[in-house]
């Protein structure tokens, strides 16, 4: 048992892929992530299969597309019949520990309507053992603050207001009222070190979650002033939000509906009113939150080094989803633009260094994380898992039969804090989209709204919809067929390989290579 490898799965929240120095973000300081990229493989074309948090984490931890796990929005339950990474790890002798959160609403058939878990945004996914919970309602963190002797304000969230009595809520160059030594990132790091120090040499699996760089977009000192707004990339957007709104009814809704208060504690006004200076300041704060996490990871990495566990630990670094950060005049993780779906993925497997430092261009998805970890530990994924192990890509370039497009989904039905379904006059099960995308084209299919089609070579930021252009009709048809074929190939298949015969039950197994070729 002592020879079994350790696994550190780092899941940050709302970190988009183009804020990774190894992928070109030279304006950022992340020495510990840089080290991980040098010693592992960084995946350039990696996406989450769903947004926001709950659906994204369901796909990450079950290996299932949204169309199959059906936890389609935050607050929508996850069917208890689905396995997940935690449950699969228990089958091979690991006790999977979790720090942070999974934003999982439980199956109501396993409980009752008075269960307090149904009054929160989400709770913890079954199968994991919490050793540092954030949910429900951040009680674990606020309790730790009080235990440290910090006098909590009457409204606990006021710790994320700008420092100073004269401060105005909203985009700011001021630090938040909580010091870095007591930030939520420090809290998660302390919980991780406490867990690791208690293992006493026993093998471990740790899901280490961080809340940042999730909003509120305000950083503790000194991270609040670590980056200059002038050094941040400018937002990518049309001259006016009204011009962007012409592209699609769903985009028009979000441009009118998203409020600053969801991103800056106590702020008012629409997100689409932020000018370029405010966007650059917000990005500088976002970058500061990223460097704070990197410094926290440095403490964890140093402990692994000092205790001889770095080399025998598999480390996977990723995020649940991205963040618009003012691109297309949007904030948050919504809709169909790349900024919401493209996320970091770095994998360093213990003992595998043939491609250390390589940036892999193959298309990868969040559903690949679970089968990758299980493969590395000698386990196996359920047959209905939609992802593939990435271990072969740590040793050599992607095979010719690797997937040739990315697939992701978004369900925009009404939840208690957002009502696009009502605003657009749609039915609950009509409020959905899926995307198929390769290096050349991107097709967005809606259940009950007009489609979108983009030429990514000529229009990489997706301003011009070509779906109704007669010159592109054949391509639109081709990519619509790709989307349909993708869904058909990944339809629920838990039991479809069994059959009754005169000799009894027969199990038919399909070679993995054939499955990949079908992608």
TrEMBL record:
<feature type="domain" description="Sulfatase N-terminal">
    <location>
        <begin position="5"/>
        <end position="378"/>
    </location>
</feature>
<keyword id="KW-0479">Metal-binding</keyword>
<dbReference type="InterPro" id="IPR000917">
    <property type="entry name" value="Sulfatase_N"/>
</dbReference>
<protein>
    <submittedName>
        <fullName>Alkaline phosphatase family protein</fullName>
    </submittedName>
</protein>
<dbReference type="InterPro" id="IPR017850">
    <property type="entry name" value="Alkaline_phosphatase_core_sf"/>
</dbReference>
<dbReference type="Pfam" id="PF00884">
    <property type="entry name" value="Sulfatase"/>
</dbReference>
<keyword id="KW-0378">Hydrolase</keyword>
<dbReference type="InterPro" id="IPR054912">
    <property type="entry name" value="HdlasePehA"/>
</dbReference>
